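note to self: the first set is below, dont mix up w the second
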Amino acid sequence: MFERIKEDIQCVFERDPAARTAFEVLTTYPGLHAVLLHRLSHRLWRMKLKWLARVLSNIARLLTGIEIHPGATIGRRFFIDHGMGVVIGETTEIGDDCTLYHGVTLGGTTWDKGKRHPTLGRDVVIGAGAKVLGPIMINEGVRIGSNAVVLKDVSAGSTVVGVPGRVVTIKEPAEPDLWMSDSNRCAGN
């Protein structure tokens, strides 16, 4: 448990240049507080103590301005920067190393039971005010611009902007170096 907390504090230092000390991060970062309280409420949710989990998540929302349903699944090193107004729905799944800015909604588009919120792959960054809605997949390494509204799956490495969200760039995986080194060419290979 303490290793996870240390990991969360370290990810704040990696993603927020304003962070100065571990004590400051632990005591003044509402995004970190929301994530820590979510871990506890999620544990209660999985233990079938759903009412208690909801009460704790509501207390966390009152304290931080960040609403995370206790049923949401969140990976490691999740960072919420300037988190006021962030909403994360019940069936949301968030991969490792993701970052959300203030006003982001990971919401549903239906009242049906079952999977109705987004899934984020590893290393996804979602800009301030963006809305990602429905049971869609946001794949690894995606960047979603501020105030975008995303309603469809997004392929890995893409950058999405606008209303409705549209892909503006796709980062291709690095090509392996197929050229021979100078020494091999000189040797006649």
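second set (the one i keep forgetting abt)
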Amino acid sequence: MAENDAGERSEQATPKRQSEARDKGQVARSRELTTALLLMTASGSLYSFSGFMGEGFANMASHAWSPTRKNLFEPSQMLSALGHLFAEVGVAMLPFFLMLFALGALSQLLIGGLSLSNKALAPQAKRMSPGKGFKRMFGMHALVELVKALAKVLVVFVVGFLVVSQVFPELLALGSGEVRTGIGRAMDLVARSFFLISLSLLVIALIDVPYQIWNHAKQLKMTKQEVKDEFKETEGKPEVKSKVRQVQRELAQQRMMEAIPDADVVVTNPEHYSVAIKYDAIHSSAPIVLAKGADVIAMQIRKVAIANDVPIMAAPPLARAIYHTTEINQEVPQGLYLAVAQVLAYIFQLNSFKAGKGERPPAPGDLPIPDDYKY
């Protein structure tokens, strides 16, 4: 049961999976929406520019059907006239093709957005696999595409039949009118019929768009194991992260131990806590904690202090207060200034006594520790 759950694609694609799919060119696309919009734009452009295009076609027809004597008997003039006719057609059709090109580019952005991927153009072995090809030909996707194709043919046939049946008498009547008027009217009828037929494809597109979005999300779904593996790759494996933290702690502890010889005093709670303090009146306004530790680390601090002749003073309440309230390389809290000052004064006087200057100072009694700093 657990193996089935692990292999079932039941989880939504993560942002990383979606980004990788986009890099490969795998985005939701609806060819039906693109086709419908292109045809509707073509029909709308045809209707909007029908007058301009009709005038261009009428001029072309007039020039083509009314050749001059010179054009008839001069081959070079015939080629020039033909080029002129093509130019007139091109100018007449230019707005129509520009509108199609613009919407063809924009329609790709409606679903999935812009996606430029070199990976999508690269040859892939799975695309040339007969087994994969057979599966694509007879899979669910192929069945859906077949249903859409049949639906499009049916819809276009029905709508086209109704539209042509309606405008057919008008089309027959065009032959009895003037050329320019007939061409303009024909352009109008074709554009209107074209628009109605292309509008019918929009129905198919409105059904296809939600399906493509759903199918794309389904293809990107992940198994629970894939989500876990991706999380490990992104965040780092727990054992690796633990090892990194261990190394960081060791480096920080090493730097802390290297700073102990510069301390003025190590205040201890003889068995459990040790705090190394230094006061530099020039560079800081208050004593700074160079090192602190509990249990094994506290013992190591005391050993380093002894090895470097750093004075050690047992003051359990003060050691606990500094350990719990102050981080390494931070100044001691203002509430502990007086207690720390008494300790430092005693240590400085003791150092003078050891140097043969003055009398041995008395050890300080109970240090003034505020209630807020008692632990």
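remember for set 2: The CA atoms of residues 60 and 86 lie 8 Å apart.
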